[in-house]
Amino acid sequence: MDGSLILFNLLNPPVLFFFLGMIAVFTKSDLEIPTPLPKLFSLYLLIAIGFKGGHELAESGINLKIGITLLAAIVMAALVPIYTFFILRTKLDQYNAAAIAATYGSISAVTFITASSFLEKLHITYGGHMVAALALMESPAIIVGIVLVKIFAQTQGELSTIAGLPSNKYKYASSVVELEKSFTRSSKEYIVNPSVTTKKEDFNWGQVLQEAFLNASVFLLVGSLIIGILTGEEGWHKLEPFTQGIFYGALTFFLLDMGLVAAKRIRDLKKTGSFLIGFSVIIPVVNALIGIAIAKVLNFEEGNALLFAVLCASASYIAVPAAMRMTVPEANPSLYVSMALALTFPFNIIVGIPLYLEIIKHLFI
Hints:
Blueprint: H1 3-10, H2 13-26, H3 36-60, H4 64-88, H5 94-105, H6 109-121, H7 129-136, H8 140-152, H9 169-179, H10 188-192, H11 205-214, H12 216-245, H13 247-265, H14 273-297, H15 302-313, H16 319-327, H17 333-364
Helix pairs in contact: 1-17, 2-13, 3-7, 3-12, 3-13, 4-5, 4-7, 4-8, 4-14, 5-8, 5-17, 6-15, 6-17, 7-12, 13-17, 14-15, 14-17, 15-17
């Protein structure tokens, strides 16, 4: 592998600020970012990337090749949770296996944005339809994960068990308390009632589908994409200073916060054991290689191939955890959130993105 690509990626200011955030935690600096700001910048990034994708789609139009690309994205989002579920089942119960599989079947918008920034720095073009692929890949994994639980759950009384993790429901409830501050939705209903499995009786497919297809990130991304298509060139020029002029500044600030959060999550990895730590690094590479093979067969351009590989390789730490907490409370969030955020995310933005591009260059040129 060409080490210069990794060095090139590392010297990208947003990536360096990600490390600065991690260093702040490791050195016990009192650096803190007020809670509303990361939320504001995440909303901004979704608007900017969605609007840009809509503008580029309006420029290029929608043809058969784009349709096939979007179909391939949906297939991969549904396929990844299935085979990863069976790998995870060799060590975990069905609840944790399904939650982690759904996490790795879905995508990370921030990883995608970092990869698109990397491509722009290298002056490699990519299609706006890849933003549509990003939006389409977020939800299918949630549905597949829940279906897997439905199929493989044997008894409602069974609780999550994994070596090194709390073995009874009261201890499990305590572990959820520790994670309470990390999520936007309350999990008190599962903490107050020690029998977390009774919530299965309230299972509601309508809520699941709403969480999968209408969660804030998907809604805003798809909405911005449609607005970008409808407003065309005139809308693009009007919003360009907002959607492009401050884009890298917002991304830099957001990654600084991500560095703080990821470093705080590293301590949770002690609970996962070597199997899940290895899974967090190996599976993204496997998924990326499958994505690159599909991109090669479908004759993707270089930039589109990298973004497709990154989408296949990334893991969700926002939409899927929110959905899994509601629908699969037996799964332990400290596993799938910590793996996605503290290992897979930094691996992809530091090593994965340049590694996948290097492979694509060897295969496509």
